[in-house]
Amino acid sequence: MTSVLADTATPPLTEARASKRASSDRATSFDAIVIGAGIAGLYQLYRLRELGLSARVLETGSGVGGTWYWNRYPGARFDSESYTYGYSFSEELLRTWNWSEHFAAQPETLRYLNHVADRFDLWRDIQFDSRVAAAAFDEATRSWDVTLDDGRRCSARFLITAVGPLSAYTLPRIPGADRFRGEAFHTYRWPHEPVDFAGKRVAVIGTGATGVQVIQTIAPLVGHLTVFQRTPNWCTPLHNRPITAEEQQKIKAGYPAMFELLRQTPGCYIHNTDPRSVFDVTVEEREAFWEKLYSEPGFGIWMANFRDVLTDASANALFSDFVARKIRERVKDPVVAETLIPKCHGFGTRRVPQETRYYEAYNLPHVRLVDTRRTPIEQITETGIRTSDAAYDVDIIIYATGFDAITGAFDRIDFRGVQGTHLKDHWADGPKTYLGLMSTGFPNMLTIVGPHNASTRCNIPRCIEQNVEWVTALMRTVRDRGITRFEATAEAEADWSHHVEELAAGMLYTQVDSWATGINSNVEGRNVRRILQYQGGAPAYRARCDEVTASGYAGMILS
Ligand SMILES: Cc1cc2nc3c(=O)[nH]c(=O)nc-3n(C[C@H](O)[C@H](O)[C@H](O)COP(=O)(O)OP(=O)(O)OC[C@H]3O[C@@H](n4cnc5c(N)ncnc54)[C@H](O)[C@@H]3O)c2cc1C
């Protein structure tokens, strides 16, 4: 049996570039340690180097890229327009890198991030195959002691987490998974070698954004596909296509204006909310607008819809009906169509998967949909999956079962702050942060793309750049003023956490179980909704962060 499920199954070093690993793994003491070599960790490293600080990035994987290093499953690709997603900090990088598609696939994004690491000579400060297991603040030395899962240790005055919002993958709690004799893969832990689907009987468990990408991609390739769906999602067309030479030129010439636009939209996407209410227009106008959104590429349908679609239940119900009609039109079997239409949540209150002929996959004679709310999976057997009413023998099981999102990667590290306080305990009733970038009792620690910051409601690299630049400005101040300790005050943390809670009140998504509200039935204790995301929009978030910088770090004690 081939299985890439266990945490210990980190693939061997197959990236050619990983041979350029940190030049001296023997050094153990740094100004700053960054955990994670995804988009956030790479950019933070670049900026720390510019400040002349010694830095080490510690990364579980064997190569750079984070999300794009791990998620190698068939069909993995952006929902952000490629050119809106790449780094904006280097004009030379923007000028020389050509995205081939409007929504690039994973291999291209991974190539891009390797190119960035090459171009900025980042490799020598990144230590791969290095999973951080614990980090403890030492008050006497005002520094963090970091321990890897193999016992290696290092320390730094400053600890910057770039562990990723979607990096703590989860497997379903189904009895018998270890007995299965076929191949089994979690989409996040996809093997580096190609998987042969020809003629195979394949099961996919999960129909979130990842499941949708896998299903639509492998459906035409497999012998037989059984999809196990617990919660259907409102999926809308991606409309991806190659970038023509003419478009390439326009994209390059338009970068300054585009990045200026992205600074102004709430989610840093090129799509901006329509200021009208659903109820401001006639039924005909409404339908025409929605037809237009449905025919256009990307997240416009989610982000550029009428202003009340995500906040007013009756507006939301009207649009959900519109998408339901589309599903009924596209899926031939009416029973299957009804099973694919969400009944327990409205459009956009969970992450909207973007699809390419996803619904048409269910019209193929060899694709079968199993509704696990009606017939739950009871166990995995040696030969397949058994539900309450049938046994499905398969050769391959794909777990598209997602992540313990936003706080999961933090929980998997034993962070100990002042007086040994455990971060997991500090956040037990929901995260408590200041600006989503730090927590009281955890001095000298910064959390890029952490809970409560704008980034997970964002075209993430745009918010990563903002987070990193804010952290870099703080590091510059600290360096210039000889500061060795900073910490958010308890009052600032309480105020910010309250502000984040208030902003989320009234949003329809808070009434729905999803990873964005911290629910994951595969993780012990993840059954209570939490407010994890800042909902005030990236421009307001950025303004607040800038105010804190301009005030000389109000809400923090620097010494
Ligand atoms: C399939 C998929 C598609 C996506 N598409 C989009 C999109 O279109 N647009 C968008 O904005 N966002 C998208 N995202 C979200 C994506 O995660 C972010 O865009 C972005 O890649 C996050 O970068 P990061 O550096 O913060 O985290 P990551 O890319 O997750 O990197 C974090 C790194 O930290 C490492 N790490 C974690 N814990 C430890 C530890 N204890 N010790 C050492 N290393 C550790 C991980 O191995 C990982 O390499 C997508 C996510 C997925 C899964």
Description:
With 559 residues, the protein is of the alpha/beta class. It contains 17 helices and 21 strands. The strands form five sheets. Strands 2, 3, 4, 5, 6, 7, 18 and 19 form an eight-stranded mixed sheet that branches. It has a six-stranded parallel sheet with strand order 1-8-17-9-10-13, with helices on one face. A three-stranded antiparallel sheet has the order 14-15-16, with no helix packed on it. It is globular, with a radius of gyration of 23 Å. The site of flavin-adenine dinucleotide has 36 residues, from helix 1, helix 2 and helix 15.
Radius of gyration (Å) = 23 Å
Distance between the termini: 56 Å
Give the strand content.
15-25%
Low-confidence stretches: 6-18
Largest sheet: 8 strands, mixed
Number of strands: 21
If you average the pLDDT, what whole number results? 94
Ligands bound, unique: flavin-adenine dinucleotide
Task: Give the helix level as a range of percent.
Answer: 25-40%
| DSSP helical segment count | 17
Q: Name the structural class.
A: alpha/beta
Shape: globular
